[in-house]
Amino acid sequence: MDPPELCLGTGHAEESHRQDSFNMLTFILLLTLTILTIWLFKHRRVRFLHETGLAMIYGLLVGVILRYGIPANSYHNKTTLASLTSAWQLQTLCLFQVTFDPEVFFNILLPPIIFHAGYSLKKRHFFRNLGSIITYAFLGTAVSCFVIGNLMYGVVKLMQAVGQLTGKFYYTDCLFFGAIISATDPVTVLAIFNELHADGDLYALLFGESVMNDAVAIVLSSSIVAYQPAGANTHQFDASAFFKSVGVFIGIFSGSFVMGAATGVVTFTKLHCFPLLETALFFLMSWSTFLLAEACGFTGVVAVLFCGITQAHYTYNNLSEESTKRTKQLFEVLHFLAENFIFSYMGLALFTFQNHIFSPVFIIGAFIAIFIGRALNIYPLSFLLNLGRRHKIKGNFQHMMMFAGLRGAMAFALAIRDTATYARQMMFTTTLLIVFFTVWVFGGGTTPMLSWLHIRVDVDPDQDLQPSADRQSKTKQESAWLFRLWYTFDHNYLKPILTHSGPPLTSTLPSYCGPLASCLTTPRAYENHEQLRDPDSDLIRGDADLTFTFGDTAITANGAANGKRSGSTSEEALERELDSREQELLSRGTRLVFPIEDHI
Amino acid sequence: MDPPELCLGTGHAEESHRQDSFNMLTFILLLTLTILTIWLFKHRRVRFLHETGLAMIYGLLVGVILRYGIPANSYHNKTTLASLTSAWQLQTLCLFQVTFDPEVFFNILLPPIIFHAGYSLKKRHFFRNLGSIITYAFLGTAVSCFVIGNLMYGVVKLMQAVGQLTGKFYYTDCLFFGAIISATDPVTVLAIFNELHADGDLYALLFGESVMNDAVAIVLSSSIVAYQPAGANTHQFDASAFFKSVGVFIGIFSGSFVMGAATGVVTFTKLHCFPLLETALFFLMSWSTFLLAEACGFTGVVAVLFCGITQAHYTYNNLSEESTKRTKQLFEVLHFLAENFIFSYMGLALFTFQNHIFSPVFIIGAFIAIFIGRALNIYPLSFLLNLGRRHKIKGNFQHMMMFAGLRGAMAFALAIRDTATYARQMMFTTTLLIVFFTVWVFGGGTTPMLSWLHIRVDVDPDQDLQPSADRQSKTKQESAWLFRLWYTFDHNYLKPILTHSGPPLTSTLPSYCGPLASCLTTPRAYENHEQLRDPDSDLIRGDADLTFTFGDTAITANGAANGKRSGSTSEEALERELDSREQELLSRGTRLVFPIEDHI
């Protein structure tokens, strides 16, 4: 089957439709090949190469074939087949760029990846390390961005001095590069962590940081683009423009955050008995978050991230068991396909993108800069965080975080979004190479690195979750007053209103709010509550009983939880509530009976 | 939040991106509303309105609001808000048409619907009635197309005579209308059939016919478009052009069929233990069928249909239990969303499409024509079929089939594909109204009609599946020699090669093919086979044991299955194999032990 021959004599529109189909087909075959190889690797327990690395390799190979498969001079020969094939190759090369509008990455491929990341954050470890994660994600990314930006500005100046720079490259371009390349993507590392059951806290730190810093990088880069100093000297520092950029950052970020969280909260479905409807609704609501944010000028990807986190926190509790499984599987497939598509596209882009600018000095400079940027992010911040943490981030954890700073889908998507200028083209090429190198070398080196750093693997989740005296104090230390305040509010008011779990509002609201409370409480919440009061009940289930105890305590000791006893109970309850997602793993009896007998 | 105000001062591209997001958001909210109402209806067991009918109503309402929400003259007022809103409305009206390229329906929305239809055909009843289904689908659709086309040509002539026709309307246009309006879509009826457990044979006839005639209509309409007589008199009959059209029909249909069936056969995945990979692969292969067919100039939708049927037949047996569930659920969600999207878009299109041509004469004529066309399809063909069928298609079944000739997604998609000329615009408007009318009136009237026609409901699948003397002879009668030949070939050679089920090749191939046979037989097939030989085995599973018996019989009595005993056994086995999909419903013991004890 030879496409060009089939195309002869058909209209332009139809031909382009066929070409589109053919291009998509190429990618689908690439993905199929990737899946088959992944299966082979998993089957034979090969761990040195992750599926994303594989996808890139296959993409590279196809790119090479498209580019160099038939020597360029045969195009000028008169042999029909060769020239046709060659013409088709050229056409394909051009069309690959036309077909996949960079916005496709932002509007179709990134949302499921980011949503899935938010939705599958392991809540307990995540909330326990929330402060550190936010520090790394915001402060760390900002540090990394400015360090890389300034170093690259030095490199650019150097290139200018030795005459290697043939186009314009401003300071804002360097900062922009710093922003896009600061988005880490430890998908390879985390897949291996998951497989080896590596330490949960380290996992949470890395995953949380990478998910959040994607959001930070995306907003940071658009703030830098928004930095437009007034007047003639367009590339000098301008305080008002700078503060405007900061304002844009805060505005977009908080807008997207609020929008995502709000939609996540709103989607409390109660369509039990109809898993298909529930799943469809869940999918539509997540997608509408993205669209709503985009329609309002915020960032859809960031909104989707927080929507995922919020839905995992609230909506998840409302779904029927069948639906939780379905939604998880649906997003898993979407995420899997989107991720492998992006990575194989990256492989393909290295050879089929027409405007690459390979500048060895810039590339070497960038590698050094991202190394220094990552180091100045992890080590100083870990030192500062350790001052406040009782459960320190140990040295080997810091080295592992340093090592796990891979670059992936987000850096690529940000770089390909705009490749119009000389500076952007050079950045795109460099980003591509950085992604290849880090995914293959650092991704492949994860398993040896883990053992070299003596990071414990095969952690038994059971043992890891046993409450201990050490853990309680640690939690007390880490969850700052702001977080505790939010937790209490969430627990006593938000959860009962938005989910069936949690204590009924009638027991958490003051008595004068009685009618309102009973109107907002579902029968199922009472049911859960009643089951709890029955000491013989076998049906005691996760959240409900734990939070009930905490709820009761909270009313009596809410403002003044100073008594040592009640304080520690509330900490325990907090700790345990955070476990709720993982408790299917646990033997239930031991942990659940204790607080009830203690208080009733 | 007022979109036009947010849009002010932004670039054109960004504004259009926001508008796109906003449009998509409108649809998603429509779908969300539909889902919530469906849930309410299901919850309260309301049956008179199907979800697709609901989706259309909501679409209509939004269309009315967009069109008439604010009176047109306020646009000329100087009040800022009203004029802005009105300008936004106009913009939205225009953009709704720009955003949804008709090809979106063909390339994105129809494939999952059609694939799901093929994948969920109930095999047993389907194959039992295959001959009748093919007759209705091919001969019936052709009859319907020509009857409607000729009647409409009469209507058009009449309109011309009374001066109601202001544009050109050729005979080929009438035939084209006949083709697109002949595609039935009994989604409403079948949903109700499913819920009420109506007669399985009637269900198979209706479902099979509607699925296959979608494929026929799509190819028929493109053949009619391909009918281009040579010379000056472009709208006279031209024998060579006619035969060329027939050739196009046969070429496209068989090409798509072969391509779909081939891909379906090729996707025999054996990636057990990794349901995610299996599901992703399954999804990709189905999609690649569509793209491959489109890239080669065939019809993707038709290819996807046959791919679905083939995959249900072969690949399904190879998937792990987890994967069968996952793939089913994945395609169920996609199909559900796509279908409701199309129907709500239809509702919206009635008021937002700009070039409607409402011609009362044409519309009334079309209603009468589709009634006559359907009648001349069902009654004469049923009469002819009943001459050959032992299990007759009874009168009440015929009336029900007549009544269930709803028009839906396919007719709409074909009509919206090209709305450039006067004739096509009039057809589009008429098609829309026919879809509305049939879905609401005939769809809503299904339950009363079923009881009025005394069609048995609440059929116990168990009882329905009991093998009986009557059934065996019936099967013998219906499955013609060609089908039996294919069945034997499929059973002894294709199934063992392509799936783990079926008898091992070593027992079906002649002894001189021994080495080849053992090389192609998987260990699992032997396993299934071994389990079978063990009379105490509890692990006996569906297909494997049934087909084994048949397989053995087939070797000894293959060419000359004349002996009454072996003939009837092979019929039983055939019958039972066709049951394999439904046997989860059955108590297994009774049916499965019988043939084994009989032969070993």
TrEMBL record, chains A, B:
Q: What top-level branch of life does the organism fall under?
A: Eukaryota
Q: Which residues cross the membrane?
A: 22-41, 53-70, 133-155, 175-193, 246-268, 280-309, 330-351, 357-376, 397-416, 422-443
UniProt keyword annotation of Electron transport present = no
GO BP terms: namely:
regulation of intracellular pH; sodium ion import across plasma membrane
Question: GO cellular component annotations, sorted alphabetically?
Answer: plasma membrane; recycling endosome membrane
Localization per Swiss-Prot or TrEMBL:
Cell membrane; Recycling endosome membrane
Q: Topology with regard to the membrane? A: Multi-pass membrane protein
Keyword Transmembrane helix in the entry? The reply is yes
Q: Which UniProt keywords apply?
A: Antiport, Cell membrane, Endosome, Ion transport, Membrane, Sodium, Sodium transport, Transmembrane, Transmembrane helix, Transport
The Cation/H+ exchanger transmembrane domain sits at 34-452
**Gene3D superfamilies in the cross-refs:** 6.10.140.1330
Q: Which GO terms describe its molecular function?
A: potassium:proton antiporter activity; sodium:proton antiporter activity
Q: Which family does it belong to?
A: Belongs to the monovalent cation:proton antiporter 1 (CPA1) transporter (TC 2.A.36) family.
Report what the protein is called.
Sodium/hydrogen exchanger
Source organism of the structure: Maylandia zebra
